[in-house]
Amino acid sequence: MPHAIPEPYCWDESFRVFYDQLDEEHKGLFNGIFDCAKNRGDKGKFDSLYALLAGHFKFEEGMMEKAKYSEFSAHRDIHNGFLAKVKALEIPLTDASVDFAKNWLVQHIKDVDFKYKGKL
Q1: Domain range for 38
Q2: Cis before residue 8, ω within 30 degrees of 0?
Q3: Contact 29, 57 (CB under 8 A)
Q4: Is 56 annotated as belonging to a binding site?
Q5: Where does Fe cation 1 bind (predicted)?
Q6: Do the domain assignments include residue 22?
Q7: Would you say residue 78 has pLDDT above 90?
Q8: What pLDDT score does 1 carry?
Q9: What is the model's pTM?
Q10: Torsion 97-56-17-8 (CA) sign
């Protein structure tokens, strides 16, 4: 069952993975998606979000690799798939694009990232 999308769209304690840097980066991703939703025609904000996503994924994957996390490869593939979909979005963003990004992040953290709690 899908997790509820918070409104207003922002990180809260229910998204905590208990790794301080990852939690801070997740907050930044929520803020980046929120900024893009409010400024759908702003390519600069969109490019900034993409850079945040790519940087976060790289850092998170590095932690997984260092910890020899058993689901690293599958997790990396999920990240790469999302980045490809985000890169293909057109500016200005549509309601469907914004909803997709909001939903993806919520479901990803709670269903995929939560699996690494206590393992990195």
Answers
A1: 17-116
A2: yes
A3: no
A4: yes
A5: 26, 56, 60, 113
A6: yes
A7: yes
A8: 76
A9: 0.96
A10: negative
Question: For residue 42, is it within any domain?
Answer: yes
Q: What is the pLDDT of residue 31?
A: 98
Reply yes or no on whether the pLDDT at 7 is more than 80: yes
In a domain, 9, yes or no: no
By the 8 A CB rule, do 101 and 9 touch?
A: no
Per cent of the chain over pLDDT 90 is 99
3 is in an annotated binding site: no
**b/e map 92-107, b = 16+ CB within 10 Å:** ebeeebbebbbebbbe
Question: Which tokens in the block code for residue 30?
Answer: 């929520």
Give residue for tokens 């979000």: 49
Q: Does some domain include residue 76? A: yes
What Cα–Cα distance (Å) separates residue 101 from each residue in 6, 55, 98? Answer: 13, 17, 5
Look at residue 102 in the predicted model and tell me its pLDDT: 98
86, 53 in Cβ contact below 8 A?
yes
